[in-house]
């Protein structure tokens, strides 16, 4: 087992979450519920208050009306804030940004293939017309010489 295997698994999981908003939302809700239950257990708080604490902490608002006293609850808060700030919020932002950036004018695969075939046909017809006129058509792979710069050198 290589050392990079766990990191690859985490990366694949993050990519899956980023591309699946439904899974991301369910993961977020699961994190709120689990951390609320854990907070309730660690702090001996009522579940409603613990869930409120979980939502406020996850949103990084931190009203301060409820705060952890025990070490396990404080570690839970630190983990929850870190996960929200470093993973969940960026994944949500990335998902929405990718939806805004999508180019609706981009060609689909079938359209690209049709264009390529049309260009092949135009090339064939151009070569046929050039042959009839006795003119040579430069190969499309030949690159035209770059124009000289202002000093007259290339």
Automatic annotation (TrEMBL):
<dbReference type="GO" id="GO:0001508">
    <property type="term" value="P:action potential"/>
</dbReference>
<dbReference type="GO" id="GO:0005249">
    <property type="term" value="F:voltage-gated potassium channel activity"/>
</dbReference>
<dbReference type="InterPro" id="IPR028325">
    <property type="entry name" value="VG_K_chnl"/>
</dbReference>
<feature type="region of interest" description="Disordered">
    <location>
        <begin position="134"/>
        <end position="154"/>
    </location>
</feature>
<feature type="domain" description="Potassium channel">
    <location>
        <begin position="29"/>
        <end position="93"/>
    </location>
</feature>
<keyword id="KW-0812">Transmembrane</keyword>
<keyword id="KW-0813">Transport</keyword>
<protein>
    <recommendedName>
        <fullName>Potassium channel domain-containing protein</fullName>
    </recommendedName>
</protein>
<feature type="transmembrane region" description="Helical">
    <location>
        <begin position="21"/>
        <end position="42"/>
    </location>
</feature>
<dbReference type="InterPro" id="IPR013099">
    <property type="entry name" value="K_chnl_dom"/>
</dbReference>
<keyword id="KW-0472">Membrane</keyword>
<keyword id="KW-0406">Ion transport</keyword>
<dbReference type="Pfam" id="PF07885">
    <property type="entry name" value="Ion_trans_2"/>
</dbReference>
<feature type="transmembrane region" description="Helical">
    <location>
        <begin position="75"/>
        <end position="97"/>
    </location>
</feature>
<dbReference type="GO" id="GO:0008076">
    <property type="term" value="C:voltage-gated potassium channel complex"/>
</dbReference>
<keyword id="KW-0407">Ion channel</keyword>
<keyword id="KW-1133">Transmembrane helix</keyword>
<feature type="compositionally biased region" description="Low complexity">
    <location>
        <begin position="143"/>
        <end position="154"/>
    </location>
</feature>
